[in-house]
Amino acid sequence: MPANGRFAPSPSGPLHFGSLVAALASYCQAKFRQGRWLVRIEDVDTPRVVESAGDQILRDLEAFGFDWDGPVLYQSDQFEHYRYYLEKLLAQGDAYACECSRRSLRRQGVSSGPLGQIYPGNCRRKKLDPNGHSIRLDTATAATIEFHDQVYGRCELNLPAAVGDFVLKRADNIYAYHLAVVVDDQLQGIDEVVRGADLLENTCLHIWLQQKLGFATPRYLHIPLVDNAQGVKLSKQTGASPIDHRNASRQLVAALSHLGQSPEVGLHQGNPDEILRWAIANWDQTSIPVLRPSSAENFED
Ligand code: GLU
User: Fold this and answer.
1) Among 94, 169, 172, 254, which is most exposed with the fewest C-beta within 10 angstroms?
2) 111, 162 in Cβ contact below 8 A?
3) What angle do CA 152, 157, 160 make, to 5 degrees?
4) Which pLDDT score, from 0 to 100, does residue 147 have?
5) Strand pairing partners for 95?
């Protein structure tokens, strides 16, 4: 069965080895199943966007031999869609306006979980004007959301206890990653999401949102994160070095090894196109190792 996949980097800096691993895994998984592989630049959080980082990411992907299907989607072109679905949630009574700032919640002693402050629903019944306020999704009746991840197996999260009502749009009018990713995956016809295991728990938030919007839930496959020598996840925030075109072949082969694949001897001597062809033909999803992420990604901060 063909499975449409995607790679969705945030243009907050250049690609690093961890992002190369995510690109490679999503590419092989989609192409192995004769699906389309789409690229989406996740520039929804405009203050965090680094100028020209999106173009650099696309040039890097090309230099590493990746060939995406269709036009690149930019989240900054999608605001009308996010607005439409946010209004639908408000009209359904599933979302509401909130006047609490993170600081005021801290003052009230609201506790925090792995994904940030656990919002207790203070504004749920206040019927505040959505303009000028943040908008949250009501999770009071969500209970435990569970799903089957193709690498990590059964995953679950009790939304009211672990997260509470999460933000869909900030008071400064920035749409949240959670809303953008769920809407885009639906509108782009993505039926299999492959991404880093730091987003494993966030998937439960996405599933609750999909249910409220009447969207089907795609299949999920989370891949083990790449740590640096200090055991910290490689990321732009931890200063991971950008991937370097000059030894693209070696890095592709190293990324295959990280994904538990068994690159044949001498594969790194081929050019990136040859390596990707080999990777698709020999792709074995069942060999991807399970490494638990040490800390989850918090998209509210
Ligand atoms: N934009 C996110 C990142 O660069 C990935 C989100 C996703 O794949 O759902 O980490």
Assistant:
1) 172
2) no
3) 170
4) 98
5) 137
